[in-house]
Design goal:
The complex is a heterodimer. Helix content of chain A is 34%, strand content 25%. Chain A contains eleven helices and 14 strands. In chain A, a hairpin with a 2-residue loop joins strand 6 and strand 7. By secondary structure, chain B is of the alpha/beta class. Chain B folds into two domains: 2-91, Ubiquitin-like (UB roll) (Roll); 103-172, DNA polymerase, domain 1 (Orthogonal Bundle), CATH 1.10.150.120. Chain B is built from five helices and six strands, in the order βββαβββαααα. In chain B, a hairpin with a 2-residue loop joins strand 4 and strand 5 (72-75). Classes of the chains: A alpha+beta, B alpha/beta.
C-alpha cells in the first residue's frame, strides 16, 4: 500500500507551518510522528493535497516542569521520551499510560500532542489529559489560544483546531495537594487499540479527595469524559463504599458498543473493574505509606 | 536515481513532485530522487535493492520492516523516505561484515531463534537498539523490547534466548576490547 500523491513541505518554523495551512484552506495536513497519519494515508482514509512535516522545526521536542509544577509537553515530544522521563513523579496517570501506548517501536516516533490531535476514540493520551484537566495550546494566524482537553476532542478523529491552527504544546496543571492516579488498559495484544481503558487522576488533601478526574477510551464514539461521574468522590476518602459508588457511576457513563473486541456489556464491566482496581490500588498504597 | 511508485528509476512525469534526498544507509551515503509519498521501506527494498527489510503487515502492526534511524528502531513502512533525508539508517544488511556475523545474528543461529525467518531482520534490529541502551537486559526487558515485533512461528522463547546469548557475547567482547 502507498499513499496517493501529495506535495510535501518541511518548514523550519511554526509561523511557516501556519502560513502553509492558511494558504491551503483545509487541504494541508500536519505530520508529526506520523504513526497514525501515515497508515491513514496508505489506507487512503486521508488524501491531503499537502503534507506539512513539522519534524524539522527545532525546539519542540521538550517536556519540562515549570517552577509551579506545571508540565509542558512540546509538539515533537515522543511517547518514549515520556516513558523514560524522570519528570512524571507527580503525574502517575501519565507515567502509567506511557508504556501502554501502542508498542515500543511506534513509541520512538509517535508524539503525545499528535496523538491528542488524532482524536482516536481509543487513544490513550486523550483520556489521560481529560482526567488531568489538561489544556492544548493552539497557534494560528492570530496568535495562541488555550483549549481545555475536554473540549478538544469533538468526535471520532475530529479535534477543535481550526484549519489554519497547529497544536504546539500540551499543558498539565499540577495537583493541589497530593497527586494520585492510574491508567489501566485492556488490549488483545501489545500495540492493539484499547478494548477499554480507564484514566483516573485525583488531588488528595490528607485522605480527602479534593478533585477527581476520569476519562475512558475504547468505550464510545469519542474519548468519554467521565469527570462528572467520578466527582462523587470529592469530599470523601477512598473506602470500599466510595470506590464502589465511583466505579458504578463511571461505568454508567461509558457508551460501549459490541464489536470484535467484545460485547458492550463486557466492556462496561471492564470499566467498572478498572475503576475499582485503580482506586483500590491507590487506597492500599496510601495505607501502607501512612 | 529516481524512485517513483509507478515508474521505478524512470524520470518523473510532468507535474510529479520529486525531492532529492541523501540517506546514509549502513555507512554509505545514497542519493535518490523520490516522490514525497515514497515510504522508507520501499526506498530500501525497491530503489536500493536492500530486500533484507521485510514488508509484513504494511499497516504498522507487525514490526517486520523495523530498521534503525539514527539508532532508534522505526517501522520503515510508517516513515516517509523524505523524512530519512540527512539521517543514518541501519538495516539487517548492515549487521554482518564480509567475514563475520554480528553477535545478534550468531545468537539467532546458536539458539535457533528463527523458523521461517520473515520476522527475523526486524527482531534483530529491535534487539540491537535494546542492547545499545541496555547491554545486560533481563528476560523481561528483552520481551518488552521485542513486544512490537510479531513472530508467528517460534512462540518467542528462542528469540528471547538468542538476544540474551548475544548480550552476553557482546559484553564479553567489550571486556576484551
Amino acid at each position: 500500500m502507498y499513499p496517493s500523491r501529495f506535495s510535501y513541505d518541511a518548514p523550519t518554523s511554526v509561523e511557516e507551518v501556519i502560513a502553509i495551512l492558511d494558504q491551503n484552506g483545509g487541504e494541508a495536513k500536519v505530520l508529526a510522528g506520523g504513526q497514525s497519519l501515515i497508515p491513514m494515508l496508505k489506507l487512503r482514509f486521508a488524501s491531503p493535497a499537502r503534507v506539512v512535516d513539522i519534524n524539522g522545526i527545532p525546539g519542540l521536542e521538550y517536556h519540562r516542569l515549570d517552577p509551579d509544577g506545571t508540565l509542558r509537553i512540546g509538539a515533537l515530544c515522543r511517547h518514549e521520551d515520556l516513558e523514560f522521563s524522570k519528570l512524571l513523579g507527580n503525574f502517575p496517570t501519565l507515567a502509567q499510560a506511557s508504556s501502554l501506548v501502542a508498542d515500543p517501536i511506534v513509541r520512538t516516533r509517535g508524539t503525545f500532542v499528535g496523538s491528542l490531535c488524532h482524536a482516536d476514540p481509543q487513544g490513550d493520551w486523550s483520556a489521560t489529559m481529560i482526567a488531568l484537566g489538561g489544556k492544548i495550546i493552539a497557534q494560528g494566524p492570530n496568535g495562541r489560544r488555550e483549549i481545555e482537553a475536554r473540549d478538544f476532542v469533538l468526535g471520532p478523529f475530529v479535534n477543535a483546531l481550526a484549519f489554519n491552527e497547529v497544536a504546539v504544546e500540551a499543558i498539565v496543571p499540577p495537583a493541589k495537594g497530593k497527586a494520585l492516579g492510574g491508567y489501566l488498559k485492556l488490549e488483545r495484544r501489545v500495540g492493539d487499540f484499547a478494548t477499554a481503558s480507564v484514566a483516573i487522576a485525583l488531588d488528595v488533601d490528607g485522605d480527602i479527595v479534593t478533585r477527581a478526574g476520569c476519562a475512558l477510551a475504547g468505550v464510545g464514539g469519542r474519548t468519554i469524559d467521565a469527570n462528572d461521574a467520578i466527582s462523587v468522590l470529592v469530599g470523601k476518602s477512598l473506602t470500599a463504599e466510595s470506590i464502589k459508588e465511583a466505579a458504578e457511576a463511571v461505568a454508567a457513563a461509558a457508551e460501549p458498543r459490541t464489536d470484535h473486541r467484545g460485547s458492550g456489556s463486557y466492556k462496561r464491566h471492564i470499566v467498572e473493574t478498572f475503576v475499582t482496581r485503580i482506586l483500590s490500588n491507590i487506597a492500599n498504597s496510601e495505607q501502607k505509606a501512612a | 536515481m529516481t524512485s517513483l511508485y509507478d515508474e521505478v528509476q524512470a524520470a518523473p512525469a510532468a507535474g510529479v513532485e520529486v525531492r532529492r534526498i541523501t540517506v546514509n544507509v549502513n555507512g554509505t551515503d545514497r542519493t535518490v530522487d523520490v516522490e514525497p509519498r515514497l515510504l522508507l521501506a520501499h526506498l530500501l527494498r525497491q530503489a536500493l535493492q536492500l530486500t533484507g527489510t521485510h514488508s509484513g503487515c504494511d499497516t504498522s502492526g507487525c514490526g517486520a520492516c523495523t530498521v534503525l534511524m539514527d539508532g532508534r528502531p522505526v517501522k520503515s513502512c510508517t516513515v516517509l523516505a523524505v523524512q530519512a533525508n540527512g539521517r543514518e539508517v541501519e538495516t539487517v544488511e548492515g549487521l554482518a561484515t564480509a567475514s563475520e556475523l554480528h553477535p545478534i545474528q550468531e545468537g539467532f543461529k546458536e539458539e535457533h531463534g528463527l523458523q521461517c525467518g520473515f520476522c527475523t531482520p526486524g527482531m534483530m534490529l529491535s534487539a540491537k537498539a535494546l542492547l545499545e541502551r541496555n547491554p545486560d537486559p533481563t528476560e523481561d526487558e528483552v520481551r518488552w523490547a521485542l513486544s512490537g515485533n510479531l513472530c508467528r512461528c517460534t512462540g518467542y522463547q528462542n528469540i528471547v534466548k538468542s538476544v540474551l546469548w548475544a548480550a552476553k557475547k557482546m559484553r564479553e567482547q567489550n571486556q576484551e576490547a
